[in-house]
Amino acid sequence: MSAIKETLSAYHAENQDGGFKLNQYDVKEVIGQGAFGVVHLAVDTTTGTQYAIKEFSKTRLRRRDRESQMRNNRGRVAGVSNLWGSDDDALNDEDPLRLVRKEIAIYKKLVHPNVVMLREVLDDPEHDALFMVFEMCMGGVLMDVSLSQPCEPFPVDKARRYFGELLLGIEYLHANGIVHRDIKPENLLLTEDGRMKIADFGVSEIFLRGDDTMKRSAGSPAFMAPEQISVDCHTYSGRAADIWSMGVTLFCMCYGKLPFVGDSILSVYKAIREDVLDLPQEEDPRLQDLLTSILEKDPEQRIEMAELREHEWVTDSGRVPLLPYEQNCHRVEVTDEEVKHAVKSIHNVVATIRALAHWRR
């Protein structure tokens, strides 16, 4: 397992190109934007290695987790994680990062060839910024597909390879009590050598004691499972919903389009709940069986991970077997000390950066 590097000091400096430095990271241009903040390209000046630094809003992260805690207070489902002690403690604790600290500690320990690795977290306690340093995936997103934008499908061997890597990564997360909840091609990144890695844990949930019961929906509408958007379903299995999203992603890889579409989000939801899966008649019967089994609208009848990893299409009838479960799914344990030190403080770095930017103007 690769060690997470911890630095002993924090400092800042202005760069000639208008960027800034956080510890040993030379932070450069913005390369992306998400719901919680922007993503910068950064270089570790001690090694020359490139990283993606996500700048998050602590207020938004804290609000997300406080809302989750309050929902659980109104009717907790047994087994859904309460990672920070009692609910009252979580809501009243003066530490603004208490609600994300253990989640960060767990993600720092997730080391898998098909999961984007979090290297470290840097915090300015005086301001709203929280910086997460991730490995850089230079190959970009797996594919760019949407309701209005189909794309070129992958050859069957490439689709099989990427789906196998997705399966191993999600299996590893599930074994460690994490449901991703937003699996889609946009959140699957490629390394320079073509390996696929799962990214973006912004709406993920942690579950305990094997009970993955979820009470609220999250994710991208076209990739959500029928049970997540059913007015009659108040709880659902997070793992089963992840498997559905894997099926939608596989359909995109094989056909370059989404399986269920509509002119609005409501019409997409209606198609997900009611439309019959349309597959080409000439398709490989193994792929037909796989997609039908994954995109089964009844989560109780949907294929599960243990059967999925042995499916004939996934393994090409045994010619390309996956890594055994025991080798793929080492368990992650997090100590109290690791939780305590999950976030590194950067005193007043952000204030200084803003002052420098104002001075330059």
From TrEMBL:
Kinase recorded as keyword: yes
A GO molecular-function descriptor: ATP binding
Q: Which PROSITE patterns match?
A: PROTEIN_KINASE_ATP (PS00107), PROTEIN_KINASE_DOM (PS50011), PROTEIN_KINASE_ST (PS00108)
Q: Which residues form a coiled coil?
A: none
Residues engaged in binding ATP:
K54
What keywords were assigned to this record?
ATP-binding, Kinase, Nucleotide-binding, Serine/threonine-protein kinase, Transferase
> By its UniProt entry, which CDD domains does this protein fall under?
STKc_LKB1_CaMKK
Q: Which InterPro entries match?
A: Kinase-like_dom_sf, Prot_kinase_dom, Protein_kinase_ATP_BS, Ser/Thr_kinase_AS
Looking at the record, the residues that make up the Protein kinase domain are: 25-314
Assigned GO CC terms: cytoplasm
Which GO BP terms sit in this record? intracellular signal transduction
Q: Family membership, please give it.
A: Belongs to the protein kinase superfamily.
PANTHER family, sorted: MAP/MICROTUBULE AFFINITY-REGULATING KINASE, SERINE THREONINE PROTEIN KINASE
Which protein is depicted?
Kinase-like domain-containing protein
